[in-house]
Amino acid sequence: MATLIEVRDVSCAKDNEHTIFSKLDFDVNEGDVVVLQGKSGSGKTTLLKCIAHLNVYNGRILYRGRTAKSFGVPSFRTKVFYVPQKPSLLSGTPRDFLATVSSFNSRKVPRSVSDGSGLTYPIEVAKAWGIDEELWDRNWSNLSGGESQRIALATAVGLNTAEVLLLDEPTSALDPQSTVLVERFISNELRSPESELKAILWITHSEEQGRRVGSRLLRISNSGCEEEARLLDP
Ligand SMILES: Nc1ncnc2c1ncn2[C@@H]1O[C@H](COP(=O)(O)OP(=O)(O)OP(=O)(O)O)[C@@H](O)[C@H]1O
């Protein structure tokens, strides 16, 4: 299986005196769903932001053997797509966000035949998760936490540009039924030959969710990360 992400001796600090984590070393390979767990404040979100090139760090992070800069950062971020826990902090509307992210994509891979632009599939995905199309034209700040989470996820999955999704507690604002719908959809995308998606890093505090979705478990602490035994229920 191809190696998609290489994290080598990565460390990150809050300031000159306080390290968040250090000496992180791991790979993410094609087919992996790597569940990230660790105490609150251990640096899980920070790590995803480092991988997405949204945070400064020391060490080396490569995607398909290349740095984000050598790839071109906007294009890189459509391939290694970070989905924040609280997309409601974004400005404008989800439809604006969809248009912006889509414009960064160097290679369009539309899933929907309806308009060929690739912009309708995210809306179809969100609809399957109970999101009416009119919500795409509301400001993020006027959507509920669960609505904005589903829309941000549907954008990340539905644009079908990302090979690696970086999911930051993606279902933390969802009810149990919506959570299961979203988990199944994303797992199916990972297996679909039509999908670009090849690996996921998934932060969750839920051991149950970790077992449902994960193929690997990494525990983060300020002294590094440890891999635990395979997660998936048999
Ligand atoms: N921009 C920042 N400036 C200074 N400190 C920061 C910044 N962002 C995060 N931190 C600090 O870095 C540490 C790690 O934060 P992070 O959000 O990555 O943890 P986490 O493991 O995702 O936590 P949680 O499980 O609570 O979401 C925390 O102590 C946090 O206060």
Describe the SSE topology:
Layout: E1 3-13, E2 19-29, E3 33-37, H1 44-51, E4 58-63, H2 68-71, H3 73-79, E5 80-83, H4 94-103, H5 120-128, H6 145-158, E6 164-168, H7 176-191, E7 199-203, H8 207-213, E8 216-221, E9 224-228
The chain binds adenosine-5'-triphosphate (ATP).
Give a brief description.
Helices cover 32% and strands 25% of the residues. By secondary structure, the chain is of the alpha/beta class. It binds adenosine-5'-triphosphate (ATP).
What does this molecule look like?
There is one protein chain. The protein is α/β, with parallel strands linked by helices and 234 residues long. It has a single domain (3-106, 113-228), classed as Rossmann fold (3-Layer(aba) Sandwich). Helix content is 32%, strand content 25%. The protein has eight helices and nine strands. The chain has helices at 44-51, 68-71, 73-79, 94-103, 120-128, 145-158, 176-191, 207-213; strands at 3-13, 19-29, 33-37, 58-63, 80-83, 164-168, 199-203, 216-221, 224-228. It has a six-stranded mixed beta sheet with strand order 5-6-7-3-8-9, sandwiched between helices. Strand 8 and strand 9 form a beta hairpin. The chain is globular and about 45 Å long. The two termini are 21 Å apart. The model has no long low-confidence stretch (mean pLDDT 89). The protein binds adenosine-5'-triphosphate. The site of adenosine-5'-triphosphate (ATP) has 10 residues, from helix 1.
